[in-house]
Design a protein that fits this description.
With 460 residues, the protein is an alpha/beta fold. The chain folds into two domains: 19-310 and 428-458, Alkaline Phosphatase, subunit A (3-Layer(aba) Sandwich), CATH 3.40.720.10; 320-417, no CATH class. The chain is 39% helix and 15% strand. It has helices at 2-13, 31-43, 76-85, 107-113, 129-132, 144-154, 177-183, 192-198, 231-242, 258-264, 268-291, 330-344, 350-361, 371-386, 402-415, 449-458; strands spanning 20-26, 60-65, 117-122, 158-160, 186-190, 204-208, 250-256, 296-302, 305-306, 309-310, 392-394, 399-401, 418-419, 424-425, 429-435, 443-446. The strands form four sheets. Strands 5-6-4-3-7-1-8-15-2-16 form a ten-stranded mixed β-sheet, with helices on both faces. The two termini are 35 Å apart. Bound molecules: zinc ion.
């Protein structure tokens, strides 16, 4: 009897936590970004209801509080620091306490110290705030070049993203992030097929996009062209690379970094397509989980909500299906109009702009507009083009002409989606979990609790 009890105690204490940990962070993905996407997927099928995203159907879920050390409305570096290290810090500080001196050790660093293999991936630049908090410690998130240097010093086995944001200093005071990475033993691959040809001969991998856009981000899902890299490919590459040595286990953080950017622009269609794309990357992890159920934990959460996105603008209805007719992001449409103007060597006429709005937003054709909305587009046209090249409006991450900004505002209005701000909000974000230890992630929790739970479960 005593022997049997001892055996039970022994077995319980020897029970291992998850060997393979996936940590997915949807930047800016509040509860309404998830809900809008699920409603949209049902609405385009003509059915009132919701079509669950894979991750939203995970068996355990909860609500996460996101305030930072100095604000109810966090930014990505403070929220990321909390999600990576379990420490609150001030907005703009990356991987350090508010004193801007004391580094906060991330769970990725803790895992790596224990011999666990680590992968960090994102749809934005690899030295951006959310990936950065897992390997760098800087007084400001804007110290991109220094964050890039700390990336090369991390020793983590895999990084995947669009590119470095600031690979070289203005005065070329060092050899730059690419050479620093190569000196530190990283193989640089450009695009997924390049990854596949270089992976077997590489110990540490830095997977970047072939031709990242000028902002060093991957293209939005809604704008993506054949052959451009996706978060799903980065996730697949990371799993492949981690499993070169499965004994060691892995910790992997993958960020859907552009949900936030689409929400900063109050661009509903682009937000929804980014959220679907994020779910597609999680499906890759889920397939892995199905093969290693007892040893795998998948956590999906967000750093904060962006845009104060609302699912109504007052009429007791939502009409999100109209968003299917928008086939370019706001920023891409702005670039497209500018290019069109340069091609014809003249200012676009209202008729020409109307034709483009019909083609790329479905206006007046599949998407009915009120006279007021048409008048607003027409007066915005005059402001933007009528008096010569229009001024560009500065969004958080890119510049758009007023015409494109107004078109996305109006399609949100028709879809009955409202936006409270062009920045972040203090709303709840969700957390979803499946796999070994997933039952820990339920109820209301502070963002600092998530990494501490992972650390405890995985034994970092
Ligand atoms: Zn943001």
């Amino acid at each position: 009897m005593i022997m049997a009890m001892m055996l039970i105690v022994f077995t319980a204490s020897a029970k291992k936590g998850p060997k393979y940990v996936f940590y997915f962070i949807g930047d800016g993905m509040g509860v309404n970004q998830v809900m809008a996407t699920q409603y949209y997927l049902s609405d385009v099928g003509g059915k009132l209801g919701y079509k669950p995203l894979l991750f939203a159907g995970f068996p355990y879920s909860g609500y996460v509080i996101t305030h930072s050390a100095n604000s109810y409305v966090t930014d990505s570096s403070a929220a990321g620091t909390a999600l990576a290290s379990g420490q609150k810090t001030d907005n703009n500080v990356l991987g350090m306490l508010p004193d801007k001196e004391t580094p906060c050790k991330s769970i990725a660093e803790m895992a790596h110290d224990k011999g666990v293999r680590v992968a960090i991936g994102t749809t934005v630049c690899i030295d951006h705030a959310t990936p950065g908090v897992f390997y760098a410690h800087q007084a400001s998130r804007n110290n991109y070049h220094e964050i890039g240097i700390q990336l090369t010093e991390s020793g983590f086995e895999f990084f995947g993203g669009a590119d470095f944001h600031t690979p070289f200093t203005k005065d070329n005071s060092d050899e730059g992030n690419y050479i620093q990475a190569e000196k530190a033993g990283y193989t640089i691959a450009r695009g997924y097929s390049d990854y596949k040809s270089k992976a077997s001969g590489s110990n540490k991998m830095l997977l970047l996009e072939k031709n990242p856009n000028s902002d060093h981000y991957l293209s939005y899902a809604i704008d993506r062209k054949e052959g451009e890299m996706t978060l799903s490919e980065i996730t697949a590459a990371a799993i492949d690379f981690m499993m070169k040595d499965p004994k060691k286990g892995f910790f992997m953080m993958m960020e859907g970094g552009k949900i936030d950017m689409a929400c900063h622009g109050n661009d509903a269609a682009t937000t929804i397509q980014e959220t679907i794309d994020f779910d597609n990357a999680i499906k890759i992890a889920y397939d892995f989980y199905l093969k290693h159920k007892k040893e795998t934990l998948i956590i999906v959460t967000a750093d904060h909500e962006t845009g104060a996105m609302g699912l109504s603008n007052g009429a007791y209805r939502l009409n999100s299906q109209v968003l299917q007719y928008q086939d370019m992001s706001e920023g891409e449409f702005s670039t497209y109009l500018e290019k069109k103007g340069r091609e014809i060597g003249d200012i676009l006429t209202w008729d020409e702009v109307q034709e483009e709005l019909k083609q790329h937003f479905g206006f007046w054709d599949k998407v009915k507009l009120s006279d007021r909305q048409t008048d607003k587009l027409r007066s915005t046209y005059v402001e933007t083009f009528g008096m010569g090249p229009g001024e560009l409006k500065e969004e958080e991450y890119y510049k758009v002409d007023k015409m494109s900004d107004e078109a996305t505002r109006i399609i949100s209005e028709v879809a009955q989606i409202s936006w409270g701000t062009g920045t972040h909000s203090g709303g709840y974000v969700p957390v979803f979990a499946i796999g070994a230890g997933a039952e820990q992630f339920t109820g209301q929790m502070d963002n600092t609790e998530i990494p501490m739970k992972i650390k405890k479960l995985a034994g970092y």
